[in-house]
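User: Some background: our group keeps a shared notebook of sequences we're curious about, and every so often someone picks one and asks for a predicted structure to add to the entry. Today it's my turn. The entry only has the sequence so far, pasted here. Could you supply the structure so I can complete it?
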Amino acid sequence: MENRVRYPFLLLMIMWSMSELVLGEERESCRVCGMWIDQYQHTAVELVYIDGKVEHTCGVACMLRIVSEQGPSSFRSIRITDWNSKEAFDAASAWYSVGSAKIPDMLPNYIAFSDRQVAEAFSEKEGGRIIDFTEALEMTSPRGMTQPFRIRQAVTSGAGSFGVGMVYSYMLKDRVLSGTDSMDPELFIGSNPAQPRAPKRMDVQMQSLVVNYALTDRIGLNANLPYFEKEMDTLVRQGKQIVTSTSKDDGIGDMAFEFRYNPWRSTIYDKFFTLLAGVTLPTGSFDGNRTYNAMTKTSLVSTAPGVQMGTGVVTYMGGLLYSQRIRSFWLHAQALYRYYPENGDNYRFGNEAQAGLAVHYTPNYDVVVGIEMDAAHTDRNEDRGMEIGNTGGTRANIALIGDWRMMNLMGGNFNLRGTVGIPIYEDLNSQDFINTNGQPYTQVQLGGGVFATVMLSFNTRFGDM
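Assistant: Of course. Here's the predicted structure to add to the notebook entry:
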């Protein structure tokens, strides 16, 4: 299958070139998150190592991650900035607010005070709890959040947080599924002389541009514009021979927008419950051409659903998200439902209910590894109100993921992320027919195979919050 790298990776090259221009700059950035130190003077921390080396972080959270990894004995002094006076003082003597209504730099939202009474007065007004340096160090973790691949996280970052990512995904399906029975496509069609055709293999490559932005500390928006290249091989019986017919198509898919609202999070920012809503716009093409089907005695849309670029209609999604940190582990869970109305060609994709679970381990602030599982049940598609028998069913997948924070540039950080997975359970719908000679055959779906994704993302936060 021809692999044509499209606009996301052109944008990647532009961003990479921009990063090269700033390599020679002396502007200091936070080693953990990459944000510019001069934009966070009201929360900045100075760390002086035993050997005299001096380092600054954007705030308390990033400082705690460095101290936790290096050990407190590695430092001659650690001086933080008082929230009210803006004066520097010893971090060990400070009182810290965590869980207030303000997120000045990173998560969790630690804010330092030199006076406990002042800290408690701040807590009474803005919420949160007051802790000392030892407790803050004990509750710190390598990352304030992790990002799953196939499900969503409930964590919403601070207002002004911005991310852009370039994604490449590949999916292969190469097994015939009838219910839970899996078979090689050539054996399937070869074992039944009445079988007129059978799907053989489907390859899908997707490149997409993903953008996210936090409107407030509790509201986040996400947009995703995909570009697909699809190829499907079908085995067709021609007399005594079986030949392979190949169809290809490529184009922009449906653009997706998602909205997350976080109504509840724990005081120390280790548990989050979030509401999810989304829509897709019909920017991808839907081929509504029809051919007459003798078995159903009606004209049906001839292009297979999996080869369509889009749904041809605005679709809707809603769900619930939960995330929790347990020391160096993050747990993410989701439940969502997708609704597909009938499009202008009187075709309707099946509604989908989905659930997912992810467990991530963060050995340090640069690396995340984990395992993710998701399952979905999809209703049958409908064409002019008639159910299409060989559509819909239940699938469950498992995937391994990795995330590497590769460099800090331009006041933010670049992350390289990847995942690879396989289906572990499939129960796909099929439909039995009797041909004009009284012989049975079955319309089936493709399953099995493998999927993989790689993503390069850039994350930062705009302005002095």
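Suggested note for the entry: Residues 20-24 have pLDDT under 50 and may be disordered. The helical segments are 7-22, 60-70, 116-126, 133-139, 185-190.
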